[in-house]
């Protein structure tokens, strides 16, 4: 029973982290049909931003305030990666709309460039980020150990999902983004500046990747290629969930996260990966458009 | 107000519109008749910008549209209702209508849906919080017209709004089109393949064939035989 609960918690924790990465991808892929391989590097950049904020705190801020660096680094990572995302969109992505294959290659190249830049600035070896002291420790509920770090990530992801949901459903900008996702020419015909919507969406998606990078520093060391480990899983989630749907992405992340932790427990990480991929392939045979798909009443 | 002059437009190599000239005024309903495939829809698409112009130009309020992107044309005051209605299926009826305010740019912020929309189309009020995709064809058509109307366009382009719709709704839509032109002083371009419907609704008729206008004139002065000659398959 304890083992089951522990695995359940680990699965949820892993799912929530994957979800944070997949959300950004889901927005950009749904809206622009661009396969953004460089999204993983937004995670990496977010993680290095957190590392840099920590270094700045160590050298410039009184030690008593050190523990607050992490709170501050979340919005900074969001803003920095969102701006980089905006730059990437303006300079490269906008020439690749609706060309998934070309965009896949171009953004992969971009990803290599980002990794090399990170290597040049921070060096090839991994760096470690010291977690703030208030995140060390854990709480024990019914003899299941829940580390504060993982609980924190869970809360952070919940806040991001709620924020994104609010943005997409309740705000005018979100409604505009939905309209462009559903029918680009019609959205333009109504007077929506689709170029602006695209750029905003890309920046938002990249920013969420940056936040994921922040969270990643709590789980392990940071290296130039840290993002590439997660990008494939994130793509799987987007496709499993159904393109362009937050609800689908959330469900997809839960499925993949839980499935892979539970299989990993009985077997090994490699077998877990095989099982997850096999599951996705079979599932997509049955439901090609993913968990959540838009149904429309056909016109008579 | 809208002045289309000698345009050449189409898809890839084949030009659907060939030296087409056409005009529409405020508060006037202009019917565009023609058989299937003569380029009626392409004309509307080239006005809103979905099909690029190869030659000629379109002027709206004395401004050339040739180089303007779609969204800028819409914001100048062109409302477009495409043939397939193209409402956003997973957004609610309300959200669909609110998107119509986008063509007003900043002035459209926090606008409320005007009452006359629900007077004209009571069914939209009942369905306000349903998904657009749940509506029937006729209801979707009403929604598409409402969406194009709320942004206060100067001209409305309607692509066969009465096609495949039950007779009672056809009558309703005809009445609303007339009200939009008479009471709101909006120009309406009504693309139609049904001669009777067009003659009943429009003040001025153009007949299209082979990508350009072959007959034009005020509805009550036109010779029916002249028109029918171009409509018979």
Automatic annotation (TrEMBL), chain A:
Q: What is its main location?
A: membrane
**Cellular localisation:** Cell membrane
Keyword Ribonucleoprotein listed? The answer is no
Instruction: Please name the InterPro entries in this protein's record.
Output: ABC_transp_permease, ABC_UrtB_bac, BCAA_transport_permease
**How does this protein sit in the membrane?**
Multi-pass membrane protein
Q: Where are the transmembrane segments?
A: 12-31, 43-62, 68-88, 151-168, 199-222, 234-259, 265-286
Sorted keywords for this record are: Amino-acid transport, Cell membrane, Membrane, Transmembrane, Transmembrane helix, Transport
Q: Which family does it belong to?
A: Belongs to the binding-protein-dependent transport system permease family. LivHM subfamily.
* PANTHER family the UniProt entry points to: ABC TRANSPORTER PERMEASE PROTEIN (PTHR11795:SF447), BRANCHED-CHAIN AMINO ACID TRANSPORT SYSTEM PERMEASE PROTEIN LIVH (PTHR11795)
Annotated protein name in UniProt: Urea ABC transporter permease subunit UrtB
From TrEMBL, chain B:
* Domain named ABC transporter: residues: 2-233
Q: Which key words tag this protein in UniProt?
A: Amino-acid transport, ATP-binding, Nucleotide-binding, Transport
Write down the superkingdom of origin: Bacteria
Any one GO molecular-function label of the UniProt entry:
ATP binding
InterPro entries from the xrefs?
AAA+_ATPase, ABC_transporter-like_ATP-bd, ABC_transptr_urea_ATP-bd_UrtE, BCAA_Transport_ATP-bd_LivF, P-loop_NTPase
Pfam assignment, any one = ABC_tran
Report the sequence similarity comment from the record.
Answer: Belongs to the ABC transporter superfamily.
Q: What is this protein called?
A: Urea ABC transporter ATP-binding subunit UrtE
Q: Tell me what organism the protein belongs to.
A: Solibacillus merdavium
Q: Which gene encodes it?
A: urtE
């Amino acid at each position: 029973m304890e083992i089951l609960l522990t695995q359940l918690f680990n699965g949820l924790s892993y799912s929530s982290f994957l979800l944070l990465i997949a959300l950004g991808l889901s927005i950009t892929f749904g809206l622009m049909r661009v396969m953004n391989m460089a999204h993983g590097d937004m995670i990496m950049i977010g993680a290095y931003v957190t590392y840099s904020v920590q270094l700045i705190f160590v050298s410039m801020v009184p030690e008593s305030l050190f523990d607050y660096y992490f709170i501050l680094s979340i919005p900074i990572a969001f803003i920095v990666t969102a701006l980089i995302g905006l730059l990437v969109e303006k300079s490269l992505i906008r020439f690749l709309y609706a060309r998934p294959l070309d965009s896949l290659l171009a953004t992969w190249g971009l990803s290599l460039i980002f990794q090399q830049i990170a290597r040049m600035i921070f060096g090839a070896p991994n760096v470690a980020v010291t977690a703030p002291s208030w995140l060390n420790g854990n709480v024990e509920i019914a003899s299941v150990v829940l580390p504060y770090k993982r609980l924190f990530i869970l809360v952070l992801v919940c806040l991001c999902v709620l924020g994104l949901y609010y943005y997409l459903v309740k705000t005018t900008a979100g409604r505009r983004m939905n309209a462009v996702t559903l029918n680009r020419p019609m959205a333009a015909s109504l007077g929506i500046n689709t170029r602006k919507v695209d750029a905003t969406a890309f920046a938002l998606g990249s920013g969420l990747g940056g936040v994921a990078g922040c969270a990643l520093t709590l789980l392990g060391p940071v290296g130039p290629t840290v993002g590439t480990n997660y990008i494939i899983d994130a793509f799987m989630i987007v496709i499993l969930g159904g393109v362009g749907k937050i609800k689908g992405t959330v469900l997809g992340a839960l499925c993949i996260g839980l499935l892979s932790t539970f299989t990993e427990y009985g077997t090994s990480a490699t077998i877990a990966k095989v099982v997850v991929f096999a599951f996705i392939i079979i599932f997509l045979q049955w439901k090609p458009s993913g968990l959540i798909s838009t149904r429309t009443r056909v016109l008579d | 107000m809208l002045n289309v002059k000698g345009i050449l437009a189409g898809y890839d190599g084949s030009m659907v519109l060939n030296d087409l000239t056409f005009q529409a005024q405020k508060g006037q309903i202009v019917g565009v008749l023609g058989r299937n495939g003569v380029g009626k829809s392409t004309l509307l698409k080239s006005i809103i910008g979905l099909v690029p112009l190869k030659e000629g130009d379109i002027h709206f309020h004395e401004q050339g549209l040739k180089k303007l992107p779609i969204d800028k044309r819409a914001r100048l005051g062109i409302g477009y209702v495409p043939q397939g209605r193209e409402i956003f299926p997973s957004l609610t009826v309300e959200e669909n209508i609110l998107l119509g305010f986008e063509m007003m740019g900043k002035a459209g912020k926090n606008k409320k849906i005007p009452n006359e929309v629900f007077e004209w189309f009571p069914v939209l009020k009942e369905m306000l919080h349903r998904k657009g995709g749940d509506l029937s064809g006729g209801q979707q058509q009403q929604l598409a017209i409402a969406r194009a109307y709320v942004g206060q366009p100067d001209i409305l382009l309607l692509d066969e709004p009465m096609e495949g719709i039950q007779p009672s709704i056809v009558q309703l839509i005809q009445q609303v089109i007339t009200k939009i032109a008479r009471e709101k002083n909006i120009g309406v371009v009504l693309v139609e393949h049904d001669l009777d419907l067009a003659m009943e609704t429009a003040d001025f008729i153009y007949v299209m064939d082979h990508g350009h206008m072959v007959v034009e004139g005020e509805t009550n002065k036109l010779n029916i035989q002249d028109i029918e000659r171009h409509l018979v398959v």
